[in-house]
Description:
By secondary structure, this protein is α/β, with parallel strands linked by helices.
Amino acid sequence: xxxxxxxxxxxxxxxxxxxxxxxxxxxxxxxxxxxxxxxxxxxxxxxxxxxxxxxxxxxxxxxxxxxxxxxxxxxxxxxxxxxxxxxxxxxxxxxxxxxxxxxxxxxxxxxxxxxxxxxxxxxxxxxxxxxxxxxxxxxxxxxxxxxxxxxxxxxxxxxxxxxxxxxxxxxxxxxxxxxxxxxxxxxxxxxxxxxx
Length: 196
Ligand SMILES: Nc1nc2c(ncn2[C@@H]2O[C@H](COP(=O)(O)OP(=O)(O)OP(=O)(O)O)[C@@H](O)[C@H]2O)c(=O)[nH]1
Ligand SMILES: [Mg+2]
């Protein structure tokens, strides 16, 4: 499998008027906090430093933009599912996400990061609904698969595929630590970013 093109941090957006220019093609990464989003992004991009750049200070919820080739981007959406987040922060997250999913023309697909031990949650399902409402594709990574045995892996894969019974949603097992499924995930991202 070919390496991912070199990638660089572009900018962070804390509000809907700070998104980078909406041209070209971009793939968004979303997931519950601690699901393994940074690890997955780094593994797919073949980089170690992205996570550090994108670490969100305190409770600021940021959309982080990375550029791969000119006018092709990876977008790290703010995590969700924190237990102790003030309602105002939650509302801001919702507004920002709804805006992003509503307006973004360059958005071609969503990589949804789900901890394989937790399975698909309510907020994950909402992200899928938003991307499907735009007729875009989604690909679910069931992360940390190294924590499960073979039977558990097969079960969560089957259950998640059943829960995502839409032709535009694909699902795979993934482990950044055990390096499982990285080529498969990278091929999906690369395919989406390529011109149609
Ligand atoms: N066993 C195992 N642990 C993993 C894997 N990927 C990530 N983790 C662990 O899960 C924790 C969270 O990983 P991150 O990649 O930082 O997850 P995140 O979703 O970006 O988390 P936040 O940005 O903090 O919300 C860390 O302790 C990682 O070491 C994996 O493939 N296997
Ligand atoms: Mg992270």
